[in-house]
Amino acid sequence: MNGSEARRNGSGRTRVRLWRWRSNPLRRRDDVVEAWIVLVMWLVVVVGGALVGLVTSHAADEMFARRRAERHPVRAVLVTDAPYDGTARGGTSVRTLTAVRWTADDGTARTGRTLVDSGLLAGSRVTVWLDRHGALTTEPTPVGVATAESALFGGAAALALSGAALATASLARRHLDRRRLAQWGKEWEAIGPRWDQKTG
User: Fold this and answer.
1) C-alpha closest to that of 76 among 100, 98, 97, 96
2) Please, which of 22, 96, 153, 196 could form a disulfide with 60 given CB 3.0 to 4.6 Å?
3) Contact at 8 Å (CB) between 131 and 137?
4) Can you tell me the mean pLDDT for 67-80?
5) What is the mean pLDDT of residues 63-68?
6) Rounded CA gap, 140 and 68, in Å?
7) With bands split at pLDDT 50, 70 and 90, how would you rate the model's confidence at 199?
8) What band does 197 get if pLDDT is binned at 50, 70 and 90?
């Protein structure tokens, strides 16, 4: 099988790779523009997607790390019972907003409301989380979960940029196709009558 046969697809047409970049009498200005659109699109998808994904993942990692550094656990005591919630399924722990009391760094007693496991009685000891200002907050995301979520955020950002690039390129190419069809129509209006005269 020679080179020309190897380039033929199932429909019998010959594919010429990178034809828009090659100088030939059939190539139009719109074909060159389309070639640049496709090139820029793939650069944005491959290079831009990778950069955006890495930057987003790194930013998310830093956010999770900052939260872990700013929050610390303390022991607290339930001031009231945590009502039991019977909606738990499959051993899942249901948490309810309950009043707790703890001792601040300056030795003063503080009270507040935070989420604890339901079903606990007043006087039970629990672990609560405080922010850098000493206010009750939620537990920071564990390292393993934070790493996975950062990767997901990065992947989502890369996919979003790639999708936007593909959509923009598709719209631009559709616009070029409409222009080419319009040009072909005008050329046929000019050439068609002469063609009919020759064949007649």
Assistant:
1) 100
2) 153
3) yes
4) 94
5) 95
6) 5
7) low
8) low
Is the predicted pLDDT of residue 3 greater than 50, yes or no?
no
Where do we find the tokens 């990065």? Answer: 154
Per DSSP, the residues of 18-65 read: TGGGS--TT--HHHHHHHHHHHHHHHIIIIIHHHHHHHHHHHHHHHHH
Q: Are residues 27 and 104 in contact, defined by beta-carbon separation less than 8 angstroms?
A: no
| Strands across the sheet containing 125-130 | 109-117, 95-103, 72-78, 125-130, 136-137
Residue 5 has pLDDT above 80, yes or no: no
Please tell me the distance from the alpha carbon of residue 149 to that of residue 153, in angstroms, as a whole number.
6
Residue owning tokens 């672990």 = 127
Sheet strands (E) in the chain? 72-78, 95-103, 109-117, 125-130, 136-137
Instruction: List all residues 6 or more positions away from 63 whose beta carbon is below 8 Å from its beta carbon.
Output: none
Count Cβ neighbours within 10 Å for each residue of 27-45 and write b for 16 or more, e otherwise.
Answer: eeebeebbbebeeebeebb
Among 121, 115, 108, 117, CA closest to 78? 121
Evaluate whether 100 touches 116 at the Cβ level (below 8 Å): yes
The type of residue at 24 is N
Sign of the Cα torsion 53, 58, 63, 67 reads positive
End-to-end CA distance of the chain: 43
